[in-house]
Amino acid sequence: MNEQASELNDKLKEANPALLDMLSKKGKEIFFPKRGVLQQTADAKGKDINATIGIALEEDGSPMRLKSISSNVKLGPKDIFPYAPGFGRPDLREIWKESLFTKNPSLKGKEISNPVATSGLTQGLFVSGYLFVDAKDKIIMPDIYWENYNLVFKNGYGAEFDSFPFFSENGFNLKGFEETISKGKGKKIVFF
């Protein structure tokens, strides 16, 4: 296992061993590199010369761009054209987090992390699977679901679905969910 992944697992084990136990094998091996291109890019910010990968600047230091595109965008070039960090723009993640407190008053006073930004729902599913799903894991879910769940969880990670009928006479089939989640012991992955 990579040294950086081991360091993160040690920190997680100390802070929240139950969360470490929830991670898949791949989830325990993943890390966000502190060295290499990403570190070089961070080190280059604010320097007179920035020769890191993917950066092309105009004479005034703004991102190089096509006028045919920039003339149709109302935000500043520094907010639109550079690569966003792999985890999303920190300022937008902070705004998103604050909106969660507004929309979910029960979260007030609780410490939560900033949300993770993904490029779309399917990538969000992929990241969740990478972190938490191992081959042969059973995912508890209703029998009505988006077909991409098959692609991501079954084909991508080798998981199996343990589904129950979504509806009963009274709406959501809570009894079916309770029966399904009560089966067996150990790791439970629930997905709606």
What is this entry, summarized?
The chain is mainly alpha-helical. The protein folds into three domains: 3-86, no CATH class; 87-117, no CATH class; 121-190. The protein has ten helices and five strands.
Describe the structure.
Helix 8 (121-132) runs parallel beside helix 9. The longest helix is centred in the middle third of the chain and has 14 residues, at 90-103. The chain has 192 residues and is mostly helical. The protein folds into 3 domains: 3-86, no CATH class; 87-117, no CATH class; 121-190. The protein has helices at 3-15, 17-22, 25-29, 37-44, 67-70, 77-80, 90-103, 121-132, 148-157, 174-182; strands at 138-142, 160-164, 167-168, 171-172, 189-190.
Topology diagram in text:
Elements: H1 3-15, H2 17-22, H3 25-29, H4 37-44, H5 67-70, H6 77-80, H7 90-103, H8 121-132, E1 138-142, H9 148-157, E2 160-164, E3 167-168, E4 171-172, H10 174-182, E5 189-190
Parallel strand pairs: 1-2, 1-5
Antiparallel strand pairs: 3-4
Helix pairs in contact: 8-9
Features:
192 residues; mainly alpha; three-stranded parallel sheet; two-stranded antiparallel ribbon; 10 helices; 5 strands; 44% helix
Strand runs, count: 5
Cα gyration radius (Å): 22 Å
Largest sheet: 3 strands, parallel
Distance between the termini: 32 Å
SSE run: HHHHHHHHEHEEEHE
Molecular shape: globular
Mean pLDDT: 89
What's the helical proportion of residues?
Answer: 40-55%
Beta strand %: 5-15%
Low-confidence stretches: none
Total tally of structural domains: 3
Kindly name the structural category. mainly alpha
Strand order of the largest sheet: 2-1-5
How many helices does DSSP assign? 10
